[in-house]
Each structure stands twice: as C-alpha cells, then as structure tokens.
Amino acid sequence: MELPQSKYNQTFLSREELDSLLRERGMDATDVNRVLDAYDMAESVHEFQKRLDGMPYFWHPSRVAKIFIVELNHFDASLVCAALLHDALEDSNVLTPEIIELNFGSYTSYLVQKLTKDIKATGPMKEWVEREYIERLMQSSEDARMLKLADRLDTYRCLEFNVKKNPIKYIMQTTEHYFPLAHGSQNPRLQYLIKELQKEQNKYLG
C-alpha cells in the first residue's frame, strides 16, 4: 500500500538530508560543516515563527536551500548558507551582517543583505522600501537574483495552503517586480526558476 504524499507546505529539508545531499555531490567536509552551522543558526532564528498556513517558518528557507541543491544543481557552500539564512537578518534582533560574515564568509553576508528589507515599514515608507529593494536586487549578482526567485517559488508552491492573505496580489507583484530579475539573462538556472513560477501561477489562477 502506497503511503499518501505530504502536502508541499508540510515538507522541509532535514539536517540529515542536507548533510547527505552535500556529501553525495562531493562537497568538501569543511564546507559541509559550514552549511550545517548555517542550518542550525537559521533554525534557531526562526524557532518560534509560524507562517500563515501554521507551518514552522524555518521549513521555508530549508526548502529554498533544497531548490538550489536539487532543482538547480547549484551547491556552492556560500550560496546554500545564504539560502538558509536569507530571512535571518529580518527576523533576528541580535544577528548582524558582521556575524554572518564572521561565521559564513563575506559572500554569504553580501547575499543575505541583498535579500533583507525593512519588513516593519508601513504606509508610504513601505512603498519606498519595496522600490529600493527591487532596485537593489536588479543591481545585485545573479546568485542574489536566483536566491530571490527561489524564495518566491517556494512561496508560490504554498499559495494553495493560504500562506498569503492576498495570493492574487502576491502573484501580480511577483510578475511585475520579480520576473524582470531574469530579464536578458541567458543563465539556465534563472530561466528554470521563471518557468517554474509561471507553471505554479498558471496552476493557481486556472
């Protein structure tokens, strides 16, 4: 008898699975340990957070890391660390870019900073923050743009589970502001992410 599959939003990348995936791909043991340390830090930062669907928030960055490793076949240690920590600065009162750099290197810190915005801004300031954020991403490395699109892709895959209060608005914002992150790029990984986003939104919109 075949066991029922877990719903996507109820899945996550376990520490053991991450360790196995990286070692199978030949990652150096020192880099594997650095990634596992990033996993532990991210899990600690998001320990008491839940998403709107009731699932632990940490499952989201763990799946973003899995998208990079499994779907994009992209497992540079600094990048996987950034995937795990991409929301950590927003959600911690004690974590700083300097701490991330000290523990995981300057490129991981750069990527996490590029994906960090002031989530507490309201009113006109919120609109300004959003514009500045998009502009910053447009001028960032392809890795940072891939990271953002993978972040949106994971959330797209959770829309049917009410992870966003206004999923249609989220889709429209993604199409308008985030699809251009891949505009003009011949990078096959960026193109893959756009195709997967389009597939998910078509599934949702019907």
Identify the notable features of this structure and list them briefly:
206 residues; mainly alpha; Hypothetical protein af1432; 11 helices; 64% helix; 0% strand; globular
Structural class call reads mainly alpha
Task: Report the biggest beta sheet as strand number plus sense, adding barrel if it closes.
Answer: none
The global form is globular
Overall average residue pLDDT: 93
User: Would you identify the CATH H-level superfamily?
Assistant: Hypothetical protein af1432
Q: Mind telling me the CATH class? A: Mainly Alpha
Question: What is the topological layout?
Answer:
Blueprint: H1 15-24, H2 29-45, H3 59-71, H4 77-85, H5 88-91, H6 97-104, H7 106-114, H8 123-138, H9 142-156, H10 167-178, H11 188-205
Q: Would you summarize the structure shown here?
A:
The chain has about 210 residues and is an all-alpha fold. It has helices at about 15-25, 30-45, 60-70, 75-85, 90, 95-105, 105-115, 125-140, 140-155, 165-180, 190-205.
